[in-house]
Amino acid sequence: MRVLVTGANGQLGKCLQKHSGNFPEIEFLFETSQTLNITSEEALANFFNQYQFDFCVNCAAYTNVEAAESKKGLAFQVNSEAVKSLAEQCKTLGTKLIHISTDYVFDGLKFSPYVESDAVNPINIYGASKLQGEAMISEHMDRFFIFRTSWLYSEFGHNFFNTILKKAEDRADLNITTEQIGTPTNANDLAIFILNLINVKSDAFGLYHYSNQGEASWYDFARLILEEKQLEYQVNLKATFSYPTKAKRPKFSVLDKSKIENTFKIKVPHWRESLVGLLKKVE
Ligand SMILES: NC(=O)C1=CN([C@@H]2O[C@H](COP(=O)(O)OP(=O)(O)OC[C@H]3O[C@@H](n4cnc5c(N)ncnc54)[C@H](OP(=O)(O)O)[C@@H]3O)[C@@H](O)[C@H]2O)C=CC1
Ligand SMILES: Cc1cn([C@H]2C[C@H](O)[C@@H](COP(=O)(O)OP(=O)(O)O[C@H]3O[C@@H](C)C(=O)[C@@H](O)[C@H]3O)O2)c(=O)[nH]c1=O
């Protein structure tokens, strides 16, 4: 079985690379923005025609939520138009597409976890571009998986977890918002789930929610990182209701995992357990 991973130098891509060694029978091609720019239709066509992929995992995305507000064209180009080209290539060549979407497709006005059939209504450009990307897939092909996830973090790349650790190392004051409730998700957990799905050649296609279990504010998330690293006394951590940003973010974006747990007979780990596990490993 041959699998293409796009955006392989991002944090999810790196987690897939890290765990792919446990699946020696699968041949992976890990392509970065340098080796396969998904906004180039020509590059995609050449690539897909050269190799016969069973699965394509699209980890390539424009993920800067703040910058997207003033880079709408670029956000839509990568998160929507390029996804359409990818979907077309997958459809033409019989490749199953695994795509990652976000909790930011919701407006956050609900008070209970979002299920897959809930109405979408993004409140920032990034969320709107990702939602359009979902539509580009579901309108153009059938053999796809879309996994909406939230608040991804890992030891790799730019994410809230690494930002907090860096600020703690620099002994910077931390003012962290309590205004948003969601679920931090260890990208390693999502990567392992995706690899297992590929390994069993699943064809339970569709849209699913995958984030870790439980709920937290960004403040709760930062606090547990500092407590576990025993840094809470050397850093001045303050809860702040509102933290000024350019982009609006949903106030509530916890995802309901019943569909994915029931379909794939898995138990999704709780965010606290997963965070503590990662902090132990990266010590
Ligand atoms: N991070 C999060 O909190 C969440 C992420 N998601 C989704 O999960 C997926 C993975 O996210 P994550 O790993 O965190 O994101 P990252 O920003 O860490 O990685 C994205 C990768 O995409 C690459 N990329 C950007 N543009 C292109 C392009 N035109 N062609 C090829 N590659 C490109 C980037 O390369 P380069 O750096 O060179 O530009 C980068 O390596 C994305 O779809 C994202 O929307 C969903 C919910 C939460
Ligand atoms: C750095 C920092 C952020 N914040 C706030 C700003 C914001 O409201 C919230 C999260 O900040 P960030 O900018 O790190 O996270 P953000 O870019 O909003 O993260 C999102 O990324 C995209 C890709 C997704 O798909 C989402 O699921 C989500 O993970 O925390 C503070 O309150 N204090 C701080 O020191």
From TrEMBL:
Keyword flag ATP-binding: no
EC primary class: oxidoreductase
Residues covered by the RmlD-like substrate binding domain: 1-282
EC number(s) reported in the record: 1.1.1.133
Pathway listed: Carbohydrate biosynthesis; dTDP-L-rhamnose biosynthesis
Keyword entries, A-Z: NADP, Oxidoreductase
Catalyses which reaction(s): dTDP-beta-L-rhamnose + NADP(+) = dTDP-4-dehydro-beta-L-rhamnose + NADPH + H(+)
CDD domains with a match to the protein in the record: dTDP_HR_like_SDR_e (cd05254)
GO MF annotation terms: dTDP-4-dehydrorhamnose reductase activity
Source superkingdom: Bacteria
Gene3D superfamilies: NAD(P)-binding Rossmann-like Domain, UDP-galactose 4-epimerase, domain 1
InterPro entries, alphabetized: dTDP_dehydrorham_reduct, NAD(P)-bd_dom_sf, RmlD-like-bd
PANTHER family documented for this protein: DTDP-4-DEHYDRORHAMNOSE REDUCTASE, METHIONINE ADENOSYLTRANSFERASE 2 SUBUNIT BETA
Function: Catalyzes the reduction of dTDP-6-deoxy-L-lyxo-4-hexulose to yield dTDP-L-rhamnose.
Family the entry assigns: Belongs to the dTDP-4-dehydrorhamnose reductase family.
Protein's name in the database: dTDP-4-dehydrorhamnose reductase
Species of provenance: Psychroflexus salinarum
